[in-house]
């Protein structure tokens, strides 16, 4: 679908569910994302986000909600079963509103039936005013004759080549050429895997990770060298993140300078791995090197942060915000480089075991809640130990360092 066709869909939605609608509201939209509110009871508003992929409607939109309620997760997962069509977004939204009304025992709103109507001709023609009628008709007929894979290829071409008509920046603006090449390589690999029947991951996770990677490449923190990101074996589902800059007044900053002199390494290497259900589950993050003490780093290199557990995670969090929070947490936890330590003590198996033990402890006893004026802090291990909680000896020893 062309950008103009998608914008016509979005404008049609906004005309029905405006910000004052009694049940469902379109708060904001762009060609690649949609922000909505579902009014549960007048006091409770459910915030819902939608990421629209480049290859829409061949690839369905990705929905997520600011809630950990498993019932809401199931509602969003059922949207994947909506039959593909040229107005997939409208049909998914109809299903979403109907399912939410059932979930909260609310009457079905009559406006949802309007989503079955064809798009008003005025909206479509208005968004296509930059092209001739013959060109538009030819484009539609050609897409109808093409297979799903060809439509996907056409979508990639249109999204790259079509000039913005409303002054909004292209999604590739602000990204260096070498990083654009990485994004294009990922897309080609995904397309080839699809043709070979060797697809890994999920459409939902892959599209969200592509969006996260694009935002990182565009960010100032990345461009100024605070951190860097590399894909492990060209996999979108495993990243190496190097924290290159920490608070210059911290002992960790001094340790990294010494580390560079001794070993030629001036960064903290983190491994991020993602599952198929990302962004509904957090990434698994561990320190690979150097070996650290303090900083809320557990045995094997796992990190003791509520943010990285299902309990503390939100699908609305960006990966860059997670990276920057880890950076701040290491400094706040007074992390120090353990020079001369056994480098093999950090590995995936030990990190997973430490993380599993951590989650079990906090599911039973909760997390440390800081004073409101201090904001939301990472977990405080001293508080846990003072409570006399039972934990594995290895985990307890690690926390006490």
What attributes does this structure have?
single chain, 401 residues, alpha+beta, Ubiquitin Conjugating Enzyme, 2 domains, four-stranded antiparallel beta sheet
Task: Give the structure's gist in a few sentences.
The protein has 401 residues and is α+β, with helices and mostly antiparallel strands. The protein is 43% helix and 13% strand.
Describe this structure in words.
There is one protein chain. With 401 residues, the chain is α+β, with helices and mostly antiparallel strands. The chain has two domains: 3-127, Ubiquitin Conjugating Enzyme (Roll); 177-356, Ubiquitin Conjugating Enzyme (Roll), CATH 3.10.110. The chain is 43% helix and 13% strand. It has helices spanning 3-16, 70-78, 88-103, 121-127, 133-145, 148-161, 177-196, 203-218, 220-223, 251-263, 319-332, 348-365, 381-386, 393-400, and strands spanning 24-30, 33-39, 45-51, 62-65, 227-231, 238-243, 268-273, 284-289, 292-293, 336-337. The chain has a four-stranded antiparallel sheet with strand order 1-2-3-4. A four-stranded antiparallel sheet has the order 5-6-7-8. A hairpin with a 2-residue loop joins strand 1 and strand 2 (33-39). Helix 1 crosses helix 4 and helix 2 runs antiparallel to helix 3. Residues 122-174 are annotated as: Disordered. Residues 165-174 have a biased composition (Basic and acidic residues). Residues 204-368 form the UBC core domain.
């Amino acid at each position: 679908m062309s950008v103009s066709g998608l914008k016509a869909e979005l404008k049609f939605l906004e005309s029905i569910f405006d910000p004052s609608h009694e049940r469902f509201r379109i708060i904001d939209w762009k060609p690649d994302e949609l922000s909505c509110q579902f009014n549960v009871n007048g006091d409770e508003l459910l915030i819902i986000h939608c990421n629209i992929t480049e290859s829409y409607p061949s690839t369905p939109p990705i929905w997520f909600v600011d809630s950990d309620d498993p019932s809401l997760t199931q509602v969003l997962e059922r949207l994947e079963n909506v039959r593909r069509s040229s107005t997939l977004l409208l049909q998914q939204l109809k299903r979403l509103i109907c399912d939410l009304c059932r979930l909260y025992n609310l009457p079905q709103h009559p406006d949802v039936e309007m989503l079955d109507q064809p798009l008003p001709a005025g909206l479509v023609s208005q968004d296509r005013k930059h092209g001739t009628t013959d060109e538009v008709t030819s484009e539609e007929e050609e897409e109808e004759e093409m297979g799903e894979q060809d439509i996907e290829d056409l979508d990639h071409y249109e999204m790259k080549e079509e000039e913005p008509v409303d002054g909004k920046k292209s999604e590739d603006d602000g990204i260096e050429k070498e990083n654009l090449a990485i994004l294009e390589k990922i897309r080609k690999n995904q397309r080839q895997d699809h043709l070979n029947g060797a697809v890994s991951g999920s459409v939902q996770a892959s599209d969200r990770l592509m969006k996260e990677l694009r935002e990182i490449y565009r960010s100032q923190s990345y461009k100024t060298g605070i951190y860097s990101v590399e894909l492990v074996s060209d996999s979108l589902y495993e990243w190496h993140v190097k924290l290159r800059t920490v608070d210059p007044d911290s002992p960790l900053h001094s340790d990294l300078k010494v580390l560079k002199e001794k070993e030629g390494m001036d960064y903290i290497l983190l491994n991020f791995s993602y599952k198929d259900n990302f962004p509904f589950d957090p990434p698994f993050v561990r320190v690979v090197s150097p070996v650290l003490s303090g900083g809320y780093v557990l045995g094997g290199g796992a990190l003791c942060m509520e943010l990285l557990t299902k309990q503390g995670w939100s699908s609305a969090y960006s990966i860059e915000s997670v990276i920057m929070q880890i950076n701040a947490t290491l400094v706040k936890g007074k992390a120090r480089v353990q020079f001369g330590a056994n480098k093999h003590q950090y590995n995936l198996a030990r990190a997973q075991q430490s993380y599993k033990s951590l989650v079990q402890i906090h599911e039973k006893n909760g997390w440390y809640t800081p004073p409101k004026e201090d904001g939301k802090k990472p977990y405080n291990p001293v508080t846990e130990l003072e409570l006399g909680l039972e934990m594995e000896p290895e985990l307890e020893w690690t926390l006490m360092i």
